[in-house]
Design a protein that fits this description.
single chain, peroxiredoxin activity, 2 domains, Thioredoxin domain-containing protein, 11 strands, AhpC/TSA, Glutaredoxin, alpha+beta, Antioxidant, Horf6, Chain A, domain 2, 7 helices, about 30% helix, antioxidant, three-stranded antiparallel beta sheet, elongated, oxidoreductase
């Protein structure tokens, strides 16, 4: 498995690091696999665990909705492919549908390191898995481990991947980063909502307000002057000079 070295922290607008990896559908080059699609790369702490099982079961059910939006899903944990394959059978039974998106076997945590999903056991301050094990309880290495859950480690004391989410656009630019503690499952419907917001804002040059759902009014960005805004958004309503709403029809890709 190969990955690009992480030189600076990943931020919104960073290019998603490329990597080659073994997955449940075979070897991939990540950027080639994404192609001209959007992608959601998400990590889970461990196979055969309750919260992770519910998450992947939900994603398996929702996958057709992501596909409608030209979004590819790909999971990751520090388990091997054999473990993933067995667990996926359980998930299919629980979800009532097949899990068809790939799951990466990142047993050596190289990709987790590149994406800052786990303890920095490759950093100069913590150069080896052996040394990382000594920090099982002290947690003094720089990391993105959930500090409230010191049990989120394997038998060697090395941190599992946390629940990270990266939404990546067709240009391989990171558009969203989320991190959840091991105890808290993600909201799959919220991932779809954020995707719909990103797709709408890219297409229509608008912003989406709090609790926005497809079909709701959207916000006209502040940098658009009133004259230009009225020409572009003839149904615009001005609440304050800095707060302007306009209707936006629900796109066909947002049907659930």
């Amino acid at each position: 498995m190969q990955e690009e070295t992480r030189s600076t922290p990943l931020r919104l607008g960073s290019i998603a690091p490329n990597f080659q990896a073994e997955t449940t559908i075979g070897p991939i080059d990540f950027h080639e696999w994404v192609g001209n699609n959007w992608a959601i790369l998400f990590s889970h702490p461990e196979d055969y665990t309750p919260v992770c099982t519910t998450e992947l079961a939900a994603l398996a059910k929702y996958e057709p909705e992501f596909t409608k939006r030209n979004v590819k899903l790909i999971g990751l944990s520090a388990n091997d492919i054999e473990s993933h394959d067995g667990w996926i059978n359980d998930i299919a039974e629980i979800a009532g549908c097949a899990l068809t998106f790939p799951v990466i076997g990142d047993k050596d945590r190289q990709i987790a390191y590149a994406y800052d999903m786990s303890v920095d056991f490759l950093s100069p301050l913590c150069p080896s898995p052996t040394q990382a094990a000594h920090f099982r309880h002290k947690l003094t290495c720089p990391n993105r481990l959930d500090h409230q859950d010191t049990t989120n480690v394997d038998a060697r004391g090395i941190a599992y991947t946390i629940r990270s989410v990266f939404i990546i656009d067709p240009n391989k630019v990171i558009r969203l980063i989320q991190s959840y503690p091991a105890s808290t499952g993600r909201n799959t419907a919220e991932l779809l909502r954020v995707l719909d917001s990103l797709l709408a804002t890219d297409k229509h040059s608008i912003n989406t307000p709090v609790n926005w759902e497809p079909g709701d009014d959207v916000v006209v960005p502040s940098h658009i002057a009133d004259e230009d805004a009225r020409a572009r958004f003839p149904n615009m309503q001005v609440v304050k000079p800095y707060l302007r709403f306009t209707p936006l029809a629900k796109e066909s890709f947002t049907s659930i």
